[in-house]
Amino acid sequence: MASHPTGKGDAEERILTAAADLFARFGYSGVSTRDVAAAAGVNEVTIYRHYSRKRDLFHAVLESQLKNLHLRGDLLTGIAAATDGPEALERCFKLISTTLLPHSRLLRLVQFSVLELGDDFEPLLRKHLGELVEVLARYLEPWVRKGELHEADPRALILALVAIIVFHRSLYRVTAGGGTDPDATFKAYFNLYAV
Question: Whole-model pTM above 0.85?
């Protein structure tokens, strides 16, 4: 009779999957561990065997989703080949949107972590999104120094672009009166940064 390795067991995987779906739909406050247990087909005690607090479960879910982000080399090459600051900025936005938009569940989890849980999750977000910010900031830095982009700190500029993607639906409604197109939101903000 074959035995199955325990490692990250089937129950823990089901818990993470169910929790990711529920937290992304209803937020941290809108989900109980009882909800997660029911969706995962486990006893609530099983959740607490793996995660001592609901907050720890949310952290594990968010981290597992963040680990799936990867920067595309061809888009980084395109940024490096930009001939002016506005073009580099636009190409940075394309890379950020290409990297983040396919991960709608992750975007919702990031929104809820920022809005509901605050500073506790900053180190996790910094750990995983920090590489994206640092890499892209290095590409924009020469254009900032040349005065082709208004923002003095290229990291702040990249963070603004990340925020556009993460919160694009809300930002677009506020800035343009409705809709959900992140490209339109970027265009509304583009003139703030490009000379």
Answer: no
Question: What is each CA distance from 25 to 45, 107, 112, 129, in whole angstroms?
Answer: 23, 11, 10, 22
Q: How far apart are CA 103 and CA 66, in angstroms?
A: 9
Close Cβ partners of 13 (under 8 Å, ≥ 6 residues apart): none
Residue ranges, CATH 1.10.10.60, the chain:
10-66
pLDDT at residue 171, as a whole number:
53
* Overall CATH class of domain 73-193: mainly alpha
- Window from 44-53, 123-132, 151-160, 167-176 with minimum mean pLDDT: 167-176
Helices 122-145 & 73-80 angle (0-180, nearest 10): 30
Nearest to 17 by CA among 105, 98, 103: 105
SS3 194: strand
Which part of the chain has CATH 1.10.357? 73-193
Q: What is the CATH number of domain 10-66?
A: 1.10.10.60
User: What whole-number distance in Å separates Cα of residue 164 and Cα of residue 182?
Assistant: 7
> What's the per-residue H, E or C state across 154-182?
HHHHHHHHHHHHHCHHHHHHHHHCCCCCH
